[in-house]
Write a structure and sequence with these properties.
By secondary structure, the chain is an alpha+beta fold. It has four helices and four strands. The chain has one domain: Alpha-Beta Plaits (2-Layer Sandwich). The strands form two sheets. A two-stranded antiparallel sheet has the order 1-2. The termini are close together. The structure holds iron/sulfur cluster (3 copies). One iron/sulfur cluster (SF4) binds next to helix 2. The site of one iron/sulfur cluster (SF4) has 8 residues, from helix 3.
Amino acid sequence: MLLPMVCLQCEDPLCQEACPNGAIIENEYGILYVDSALCIGCMNCVTACVYGGIAIDPVTKKAVKCDLCSGDPACAKACEYGAITLVKREPSGLQQRRRGVTPAFRTLRIQIEEGQE
Ligand code: SF4
Ligand code: SF4
Ligand code: SF4
């Protein structure tokens, strides 16, 4: 089973709160990104994010997350079905995404527990 785990660009980001080194930064467009020069690879952000939106790069040992490709998402360009669109962050949209993510995680957990991953 393939399940994209993409950062929700939270308004109150638990990853940023958990970072001891100020490495998760919000740019002028409200996009959260990792400053790899500041990241010490402690994984606090990974354990803090309940959506699986951030991980440690096994090669660089630094945190990596979706930064919306600085406003020009490569995933949207790559999807030939037009299923990915960059839209302005709205509270209602964020709630909808969270409502979608929660059952997906629940299903994934059940499948893993039953050995169906
Ligand atoms: S990495 Fe997780 S906690 Fe941080 S902004 Fe993305 S979804 Fe929110
Ligand atoms: S891994 Fe990097 S970005 Fe994540 S909490 Fe640690 S220093 Fe911050
Ligand atoms: S291609 Fe860019 S916008 Fe799409 S998930 Fe990856 S980092 Fe985010």
